[in-house]
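Hi U.,

Before I forget, here's the chain from the pilot set. I'm dumping it here mostly so it's searchable later in email.
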Amino acid sequence: MNSIKTFILSILGGMCISIGGCAFLSSESKTVGAIFFVVGLFAICTFGFNLFTGKVCYALNNKPSYLITLVIIWVGNFFGSWLTGMLFGLTRISSLSEKAVGMVDTKLNDSLISIFILSVFCNILIFVAVDGFKNNPHEVGKYLSIFFGVTVFIICGFEHCVANMFYITMAGAWSGNALLFLIVNTIGNAIGGLLIPALKRICDDKPA
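Structure:
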């Protein structure tokens, strides 16, 4: 039952990020799009949905079996993002696919090292967002963490694996190359999300 609940909450997480991605594609301004993309992580944090890029940040705090949970979350996010993209394709906003095609083409023609680095930095900011929401003692600070963490990674052009699941679906661009891109993207996100927690743990373990 816990696995089923995890999967359902992960589908919802993927759908929320996809709605944010739709808002981004609908905006003529990248800055405005980045601001409205925040709705995705805002909803996930507020309602307790699952997002791989957020949950992976806490892998060091959990038992090895948590890796299975992360896989379930990733698959659920994928299904939620794919489903949302397919449903949007049946509506009048399917015209957004034209913008998605250009964006995805740039991503898929990038080098693997570039994708990896951009993915690492994306999840450094996702950790700032989710951990700030979780641990910041100030109510305003919680939501500022989400706002700055998300908007900055988008404006900088960093790579978020769940958002890319949606963009690739909207662009109708799934292929072997797209899957390789997503794997490298996911690995980079995982390393970026663990970077600050790992370094903090090392520093905390050292005697003063």
